[in-house]
From TrEMBL:
The keyword Transport applies. Belongs to the leucine-binding protein family. One of its GO terms (biological process) is amino acid transport. It comes from the Bacteria. Keywords: Amino-acid transport, Signal, Transport. Residues 1-23 form the signal peptide. Pfam families: Peripla_BP_6 (PF13458). It comes from Afipia massiliensis. This is Branched-chain amino acid transport system substrate-binding protein.
């Protein structure tokens, strides 16, 4: 019995040594490349990210055969419930116990700030789809990246364009946390810079079911534009109720952050003619259509800009790991800034020094019901905003990394 046990022990030690040797030779820690998709899986933002982002990330991993240099790629997921403390607790466990290398998606700025701070301390990478422009400003870190859009691209840009079209008085309806505050601030700056004014603003809690009192205040303000600085279920609920109150017949309703699933929920009859800025549309070109049809076969719906963006971000991260021949966060982060990006989400993109992924953005307009040929055929792309115009100039962000260069 002692000989048998000794043999088992020696085999175990030998197996561990081989495993450690493979990890060391590959440059990959823990002999696994582990990616955690953290987002809202049950609340207001579940449709725009949720399980769809997990599917998109898995599609990216599959392009590498689910392994790099023989080291497996593992994708896990969790629901932060739009609560920073819950999200932070999950990510702390991921980093300290489960040895997760990168966190992707998030799609909630409040959770995002907590996660990027911890990731900076632990030297782990964040592929952030949250919107606050502060992620590439005062809150930028060497290992964090903002991939899809920002409050600048979708708030500042849209408000600036409309104010210049003489829509120069605004009433803001703002979700009361960092996401809404960022949009409100960026829109205010654009409106005032273009010679307009904000005549009123009301903040509301996340997951508000009744916007009647807020909408009545907006209506009574006689502002030319009523802007919804919110997203997901809050935005779709507000749009539907605004239509019921007749706001859209006398005032211009603007929703800077619109996702494909939002239009599917609202319906073309209520949403037709709505214009907004988007990072992606599945029917934009041949590359986007080809990838989106593969996604549809897996998920049963076309991807939102966030879900397509997570595919792109994870794919680029894996390219960087392969090119750097390691999953060391600092080395991979440097390689991500060095390598160009070309995929179904962004055919000609690059990562800037502050972690901002630069890519073209698009002005989209919702089709009339008669113009739509099938479900998900909801947009026309009106124009393209080149990347160097769409994103905030590097010099204006205040990213502390720039002072270290």
């Amino acid at each position: 019995m002692k000989i048998v046990k000794l043999g088992v022990l020696l085999c175990t030690i030998a197996g561990t040594a081989v495993s450690q040797s493979v990890a060391a030779d590959s440059g990959k820690s823990d002999n696994v490349i582990k990616i955690g998709i953290l987002n809202d899986r049950s609340g207001a933002y579940a449709d725009l990210g949720g399980e769809g982002s997990v599917v998109a990330a898995k599609m990216a991993a599959e392009e590498f055969g689910n392994a790099i240099d023989g080291v497996p790629i593992e994708i896990i997921s969790a629901d932060h419930q739009n609560k920073p403390d819950i999200g932070l607790g999950i990510v702390r466990r991921w980093f300290d116990v489960e040895k997760v290398d990168v966190v992707a998606d998030i799609s909630n700025s409040g959770v995002g700030f907590a996660v990027t701070t911890l990731a900076n301390e632990r030297q782990r990478i964040v592929l952030n789809a949250s919107a606050s422009s502060d992620f590439t400003g005062k809150a930028c870190t060497r290992t964090s990246f903002q991939w899809v859009y920002s409050s600048y691209t979708n708030g500042y840009g849209l408000a600036s364009a409309l104010t210049k079209q003489k829509l120069d008085s605004w009433f803001l309806i703002t979700v009361d946390y960092s996401f809404g505050h960022a949009f409100s601030n960026d829109m205010r700056r654009a409106i005032e810079k273009a010679g307009g004014k904000v005549v009123g603003e009301v903040r509301h809690p996340l997951n508000t079911a009744d916007f009647s009192s807020v909408l009545l205040q907006a209506q009574a303000s006689n502002a030319k534009v009523v802007a919804l600085a919110n997203a997901g279920a809050d935005m779709t609920t507000a749009v539907k109720q605004a239509s019921e109150f007749g706001i859209t017949s006398k005032q211009t309703l603007v929703a800077p952050t619109v996702f494909l699933t939002d239009i599917d929920s609202i319906g073309l009859a209520a949403a037709q003619g709505l214009q907004f800025v988007t990072a992606f549309y599945w029917d934009r070109d041949e590359a986007s259509r080809t990838w989106s049809k593969k996604y549809f076969a897996r998920q049963g719906r076309m991807p939102t800009m966030t879900q397509a963006g997570i595919y792109s971000a994870v794919r680029h991260y894996l390219h960087a790991v392969r090119a750097a021949k390691t999953d060391d966060a600092l080395k991979v982060a440097d390689k991500m800034r060095e390598l160009p990006v070309s995929d179904a989400f962004a055919p000609n993109g690059k990562v800037r020094a502050d972690g901002q992924f630069l890519h073209d953005m698009y002005i989209a307009r919702v089709k009339k019901p008669a113009e739509s040929k099938q479900r998900w055929d909801y947009y026309d792309i009106v124009s393209t905003i080149p990347a160097d115009e769409a994103f905030r100039p590097l010099s204006e962000g205040g990213c502390p990394l720039l002072a270290q260069r």
